[in-house]
Amino acid sequence: MTPSAPDVTTIASAGSAVLGRRQHYGEFYGLSPLPDSFGVVLGNCQAESLRVVMDAPDRRFIRVPPVHEMTAEDARLLHALVPAAHTVVTQPVRDDYHDLPLGSRQVAAATSARVLTVTPVRFAGLHPFQAAIRVPGIEENPPIVAYHDIRTLAAAAGIPVSSSIDPEAVRAIGRASVDVLRTREATTDIRVSDLFDAVTADHARTVNHPGNAVWLPLGARVLDLLGDADGPIDPGRPLLGAVRAPLAPEVVEAWDLPDEPRAHWIVEGETVDDAEVREAHLAWYAAHPAFVAAAIERLAPLLAVWRAA
């Protein structure tokens, strides 16, 4: 049988996406001239939010791809770029990440710029049921949202758990998140953990997507270390706001939030019923039993909280 020709529309769409991505990172790819003076913020999607609040017309921090998306070409371009930067702000990245020289130490060795490290931020106190994890060998994400509900995972594994926990348990999960941040920030340059001394709903859209209540003061701390007194720039929009997890009544009570509880997700501005997410995820778990087994093992401490409730 003669193989069919590739669909022209598909090829054009793929090519357009590649071009659009390169234009999005235009300065990085040389499609736009570099500023005379600039900094770089390196890491995952959180790095871009930190960059946004620090970037200004007279204080440039140029956009670079997140490290988990970088290709061999991107790694080469990064190493050619950082020697010209005045500052590199980076999350801790292990050496030879994705078999590329993207480790924090490797990037720092490629430049004489000032290098500041800041820990990635995770806070489960607003979403105590939620986990963002990957299992080796399973790159696919569940449908609708790439987050896992411990209650849904438990149901898939046949483990009985409560549907809710009391406010003190919520606060305990939040304190545990802050303890992890405190440990990780001990080997970095910027303090983060105390930003959760007072919690608002804007502190985390999901377990790993902090909101503006974190990015603005964190940006201010980085700029202060750099001797910049002008402070961060309010972007005028919610950062990392594409996905917002439900806000449970016990969470509102635990942190004395002024917000109303919300039982649904908000995904790209659209309301998604939590029951729809649960049903889709149960079907995905049924098709991926190895993921369920590994996730239940990794999330045993969080599972224990919900089993005890």
Provide the descriptors you would attach to this structure in a database record.
single chain; about 300 residues; alpha/beta; Rossmann fold; 2 domains; 4-stranded parallel sheet; 3-stranded antiparallel sheet; globular; disordered N terminus
Provide structural commentary.
- This protein is an alpha/beta fold and 309 residues long.
- It folds into two domains: 27-117, Rossmann fold, CATH 3.40.50.12080; 130-207 and 241-308.
- The protein has eleven helices and nine strands.
- The strands form three sheets. The chain has a four-stranded parallel β-sheet, covered by helices on one side.
- Helix 2 (45-54) links the parallel strand 1 (39-42) and strand 2 (61-62).
- Helix 2 (45-54) packs across helix 7, helix 5 (150-157) packs across helix 9 (274-287) and helix 5 (150-157) packs across helix 10.
- The radius of gyration is 21 Å and the shape is globular.
- The N and C termini lie far apart (60 Å).
- 32% of the residues are buried.
